[in-house]
Amino acid sequence: MAELIDGKQLAKKVNAQTEQAVTELKTQGIEPKLVVIIVGDDEASRIYVRNKNRKAQQLGINSETKQLPKDTSQTELLKLIDQYNQDETVHGIMVQSPLPSQIDEAAVTRAISPAKDADGFNPENVGKLYANSDLNFPVSCTPKGIMTMLAAYDVQIAGANAVIVGRSNIVGRPMAALLLNASATVTVVHSHTQNMQAYTREADILIVATGIAHLIKGEDIKPGATVIDVGMNRDENGKLTGDVDFESASKVAGKITPVPGGVGPMTIATLMQQTVELAKWSE
Amino acid sequence: MAELIDGKQLAKKVNAQTEQAVTELKTQGIEPKLVVIIVGDDEASRIYVRNKNRKAQQLGINSETKQLPKDTSQTELLKLIDQYNQDETVHGIMVQSPLPSQIDEAAVTRAISPAKDADGFNPENVGKLYANSDLNFPVSCTPKGIMTMLAAYDVQIAGANAVIVGRSNIVGRPMAALLLNASATVTVVHSHTQNMQAYTREADILIVATGIAHLIKGEDIKPGATVIDVGMNRDENGKLTGDVDFESASKVAGKITPVPGGVGPMTIATLMQQTVELAKWSE
Question: A115 and chain B: CB distance < 8 Å anywhere?
Fold first, then answer.
């Protein structure tokens, strides 16, 4: 049986470090502040945002939620973002997805100041990531959290064959950049890939972020591989389940994340960590 | 024998289109202008810059070369770039590599306005490329030129297995992004990769950009593959040669670029094309 990569436990450790960093910043007169903007009344979004808020408050981060009506225009939203960009007490800004159809998500992403980009989605930050810049800049929280997990579980990255299933801007692409920067051989496979298994079966590190429940089974995994499951799907009984079939996969993998309790908690912990980093870097 | 991908011929076609576009822009009162900044007296750089200048002038592009002494400070260079950023008659700016050691190349890259970034190296443009933005933005000329070659020679990209050898910011990384955006399965291999041949032998499209003469031989290539050689090395007799051993590779590949006469001419043609695009987008 594979060793379990316990995201919940690791998130606790990361959160404790974040709490400590917040305490230190406060002694220097800096109170890290995160603003989360939510447009409309999507129920899942509300729950996510409430969880982020609660976690921020637990860690001593000043967290503000700005709830906007679902008919908010793009101009209004961009104006609000600009106000927070100018506000020196705010260190991190994020806009909860999904956004109503009248708003262009890419434009919102570009509007958030790169220095306050809690999600790491601004093209300037993405470009720095991709070019492996040695400056300080924020990075998409899910793949950044996965890097923390790999480090905590002593997974060798340099020279490893890393395969990423899925090419989203939030997970697959920044994950590829982070692993390439860390000197893995990196392959990105996706819906157009022919014979996906030929790639996944060779992976020393397999990251799965497709939104397709149980796409990856034990037979698709190299024995001893590290398997990271980014999926968060509901099965027919409403139970949370991953993109990896845990039961068969955990018999083949060397290390594996569960769903829930794997990548999820680490993503929120990383958002908190990154908010505090933004506050530090703003000094 | 493989079909030859004739970069010299294709560059002529692209240049003819660029010349036509310049003529059209001039009827609208826009004269595309490219500024090339060169710091110091590196002989190879001077030749590159002279060739760029000559080509620009042939195509009707207003081309200015700014030669700075090799002891130019970073502050002076950034100030000059800013002047060109402000100058409305200038559409494209590029700074020739290599730069003297007192100058931080990454800082120069960030200083050039994204809207005038003829080389496509500014992080904001890199981020747009990597996130597959649907806006207009410049892209690193060598990989952009390779995409033009693949299209001209009817190479199927979506679903193909593309392997890139080398992970530089100028070629390997933007090449990976372009091919991923075009729905290839993309693998980046590099100096830390174990058993490189295991990857190259499976590639339908193989892009080689390592600076190691004849790294890739016929036996490393999948029969029928398209092989793009970005290498520009001098052999013991001073003759220009690629990263691919053309003699053995051309017996296995389906399509292959020669060196010289492959990627090289397309890079300059793409720089000219992109300068004119920047002028168009500035309207």
Answer: no
